[in-house]
Each structure stands twice: as structure tokens, then as C-alpha cells.
Amino acid sequence: MSFLEYAPAPESTALLNLRDSYGLFIDGQFVDGSGDGFTTISPATEQRIAEIATASDADVDRAVAAARRAYEKTWSRMSGRDRGKYLFRIARLVQERARELAVAESLDNGKPIKESRDVDVPLVAAWFFYYAGWADKLDHAGLGANPQALGVAGQVIPWNFPLLMLAWKVAPALAAGNTVVLKPAETTPLTALIFAEILQQADLPAGVVNIVTGAGATGAALVRHPDVDKVAFTGSTGVGRDIARAVAGTDKKLTLELGGKAANIVFDDAPIDQAVEGIVNGIFFNQGHVCCAGSRLLVQESIHDEVIDRLKVRLSTLRLGDPLDKNTDIGAINSAAQLARIRELSDIGEAEGAERWTAECAIPEKGFWFAPTIFTGVEASHRIARDEVFGPVLSVLTFRTPAEAIAKANNTPYGLSAGIWSDKGSRILAVADRLRAGVVWANTFNRFDPSSPFGGYKESGYGREGGRQGLTAYLKGASA
Ligand code: NAD
After folding, report:
1. What residue's CA is closest to ligand 1, atom 8?
2. What residues contact 28, with CB distance under 8 A and at least 6 apart?
């Protein structure tokens, strides 16, 4: 071992109390699923974690019926104050079981434990605390007089932030008085099932939250179910389009949080070291499996070489490997399918003429891994400048004037987020004003807060999650 190498510092899995197999969570109980079950594995080792049930159409029907009963018999009759008490209780239980949830998340998803421990799980608790506070104040939120819940919400979420996406969906729905049937992603069902145990611990009335596991067919059965009043989806633009089609012509309310291809714009007066940290956080956080990732770096031509040189030095210090090691910066890619997609798009980038640079690091033998990669000399027409890679791959483009930066940043079918790095507040405000993106970060990136609305323009979807605005998606006739 050389002088500067880190000794292994693995987080213990001893506090996990996992079952060998998990059923569906319907009407307050774990029950068998009638579809063919599947195995959830660790993407870092390819080892089996547990058997997971698949919900058939009939199981989805049972779950929706349980949610309807709970809505009519208990949840819609309960005062906002009492609903808030349950949400506060859930938030506190998430905090109590934070370590266990973080370990399970890293095991099932592949993300570094320092991210699940310091970002995902604290934000999950924050989301429940925040919406717990709104539950008894809906009449005073400027959302109209006596706002009413919609009924049963069918929610489908992706694998990149499994428990956090659950919190973004479940907390506002319950605060607004709806009941829920949620489908987690097929590669990351584990923390949603531990969350179901937390709901039992919290004594949440049966049927208020139901969790049905399975793949796309289970999600499709849920969003098409005639007794679902509201559909909330986070995932790919392709599936989002299918869902919009399925829901069209019904009176279901729909929100879609889809993909992104965010521009991270660095001006020549930016504090370079801070910007380099922001670029790294923008695209290499969570292996780049982030819908709002700063995957297109737009750097002012005069500082291009300096920024890229410093970025390469910084990337060479990142440690890739065991997600459960407390020193790991880059964990595993979530699945073999996602790894294949990242490889394919990177190969296309090279074939189209961009220059590829990859940080030197040892890749573990087992599991799914992709070393941090930068493409320079990228042109706006290249696939790696247009398609969402959803992996640790940065495309670098240059600009000369603010107007060119804005035009290039907006030259995308997406519009979820953007970043601006500059010393001048006036420039930041002027540029932010002209970016077609739901969230614009200034001299920072990938910052989340439950009080701040999040959502997209164009093919990134519609509707907002978070903040007071996030409640409107779950209330009749409300608009922010
Ligand atoms: P995906 O669309 O393939 O899957 C998302 C979820 O939808 C999964 O639970 C899946 O089982 C389910 N699903 C698949 N087909 C379905 C169908 N026909 N009907 C209903 N449900 C169906 O996406 P993914 O690969 O899991 O996630 C990656 C994508 O999600 C990326 O494009 C990313 O940008 C996007 N994403 C967006 C946000 C956001 O807030 N905008 C957040 C996270 C991820």
C-alpha cells in the first residue's frame, strides 16, 4: 500500500434485519404477490439480497381497493392536524432508522454510503417533516378556500434515488389528504419495503399507503387503473409519454418528472476551484444517475484548458469501489442494462469525433462499474450532447459570449435544471432569467430542499414537486 492510499472503512451491514423474501404491502400487511417473483441484487457484487414479489393486475386492483377504502373510511375524515401527526411520526422513525436505511439503499442501489447517509436519508426525513407541517395549514396556503384531496394516487418511481423519490411522492400526497399506491423501480425495491415496516411501526391506518413491487407491467396496471384519481410518475421521457397517452381522455390528474440534459455554465470570472468542485458534484454525484445532472459543461473558451486540466487532476483523486466503504466517492452503476447504455453512448461519442478521457482507477472484477469520463471537443449535434447518458460521463462544449452560452444551454429538448458559475451577481440573474430550465443553481449544483419546487419544462415533464407548489398536484382545482 502506498503512503496515500486509504485503508478499507466498510460500513457494517450487521444492523440490517432483512427478510429473505418480501411480499407486497397491501392494506397494512405484507401479502403474497400472484405474479412471478424476482431477485434484487447488489450491483456492486451481483450477489442476491432478497426475493421480491411481483404484483399482477389483480394484486394492483386489491391495492387500489384498499387505498380507496382507507380514503373513504379514515384518511379523508381525519383532520389535517391528525394527518400531520402521522407524518411527523414517520419522519422521526426515518431518522431513528437512518443508518439502516442508508446501508440498505447503498446495498441495493450501488450509491456510496456517504451519499445515502448524508444526502438521501436526511432529505427523506426533511421531506416528511416539511409536509407534516403543511397538513393542518392547507386552508392558509393560498390554494383556494377549503382545498380538497383528489382521492387515490398511483405513484411510479425510478431507481436512482429510491427512498427519496418515494418521499417526494408520498409526503405531499398524504399531507393533502390522499391515499397512495406506490410502485418502486424493479432494481431498487428494498428501502420502500423497509419503509412499509416503518408505516406499521407508525401505526398508519391500514390502506393509506400500499406498495406494489414489480416491473413496467405493474406500473402500467397501476396508472391505467380506473379507480386511480391521480398519477405521479418520475422516470424516463419514453415511459412518461406512454403514461400521458394512457391517461389522456380520463379525468385523472397527472404530473410527470422526466429526464434532463442540464447545462452547467462556467464564465471566465468564476472562482475556478469552486467551479471544478461544482462540476464534479454536478455530474459525478450518484454516478451521474441524476435527472438534473450537469451533464453538459459549457465553459468559456478563454478558460477551457485551465478548467479541463484542473478537472482531470480532481477526478484522478476520486475513489471508485465498494459503495459501503465510507471513503468511496463513485459507487456502482445500478444495473447491467444501464451500464450497457452508458457504454453504447460513450462509444458513439468517440465515433462522432469527441475526445474521450477516463480517470485511471481499478475497476472491481464483479459488479457494474464505469470510471468517470470526460468528452472534450463535443459539438451540439453529437448524441452525447443531446441524449441523456444517465451515467458518470461529462460532455464539454465551449462558448465565447453570454448570448452564445444561453443559446447553447437552451438547445436541448429537455429543461429540468441548469447551473451558472460567475463572480457577478448581475450576470447570474440576467442569464438565469433566459434559461428554459425549472431549477437554476448559481455557484452551486444539485442542492435540494423540501421548500423549493422542482420540475421541468419541455420534455422534462410538467408539474412541480416540493414546496407549497408540490401540494397543488394533490388537491382539486388548486394551482400554485
Ligand atoms: P423508467 O421510465 O424505465 O422507469 C421508471 C419507473 O417506471 C420504474 O418503476 C418502471 O418499472 C416503471 N415503468 C416502466 N414502464 C412503465 C409503463 N409502461 N407504465 C408505468 N410504469 C412503467 O426509468 P428509469 O430507467 O427507472 O429511470 C431513469 C430515468 O428517470 C431517467 O431518464 C431520469 O432522467 C429520470 N428521472 C427523472 C427524475 C425527475 O425528477 N425529473 C428523477 C429521477 C429520474
Report:
1. 185
2. 199, 200, 204, 205, 206, 207
